């Protein structure tokens, strides 16, 4: 149990470091290029998230569910951006994408160095990563 808490602290530390390193690049992409440190810290965070899926607790699954739903929501908003800004209710809903983008997509944005996707497509691929983490977490939770 103590190892679980230490590992959680490591994930939080790497997450914050990845957020700090990738924040500006994720917001300004493609005007700014993704650097090697951005890629490496994002890769480390991705591997830690996948590894933590094997023994993550309920709060981890809850955050991953928010990540899946939020990433899909961001992708939909970014694809239909021109239509959304004409209707004020949808404009208010589109304002929700920015905090979700910063919380869930920006820390992993360095991986886009390999993929070179548009931000909307990359957000959709991040939702697939979160969905894989959720499936692994639920599968191993049922086996335990």
TrEMBL record:
<keyword id="KW-0472">Membrane</keyword>
<keyword id="KW-0812">Transmembrane</keyword>
<feature type="transmembrane region" description="Helical">
    <location>
        <begin position="6"/>
        <end position="27"/>
    </location>
</feature>
<feature type="transmembrane region" description="Helical">
    <location>
        <begin position="62"/>
        <end position="80"/>
    </location>
</feature>
<feature type="transmembrane region" description="Helical">
    <location>
        <begin position="39"/>
        <end position="56"/>
    </location>
</feature>
<feature type="transmembrane region" description="Helical">
    <location>
        <begin position="121"/>
        <end position="140"/>
    </location>
</feature>
<keyword id="KW-1133">Transmembrane helix</keyword>
<protein>
    <submittedName>
        <fullName>Uncharacterized protein</fullName>
    </submittedName>
</protein>
């Amino acid at each position: 149990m103590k190892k679980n808490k230490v590992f959680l602290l490591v994930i939080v530390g790497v997450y914050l470091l990845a957020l700090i390193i990738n924040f500006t690049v994720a917001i300004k992409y493609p005007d700014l290029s993704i650097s090697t440190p951005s890629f490496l810290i994002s890769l480390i965070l991705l591997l830690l998230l996948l590894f933590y899926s094997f023994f993550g607790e309920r709060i981890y699954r809850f955050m991953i569910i928010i990540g899946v739903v939020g990433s899909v929501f961001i992708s939909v908003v970014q694809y239909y951006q021109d239509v959304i800004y004409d209707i004020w209710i949808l404009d208010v809903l589109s304002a929700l994408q920015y905090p979700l983008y910063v919380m869930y997509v920006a820390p992993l944005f360095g991986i886009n160095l390999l993929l070179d996707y548009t931000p909307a497509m990359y957000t959709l691929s991040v939702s697939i990563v979160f969905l894989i983490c959720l499936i692994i977490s639920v599968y191993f939770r049922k086996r335990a």
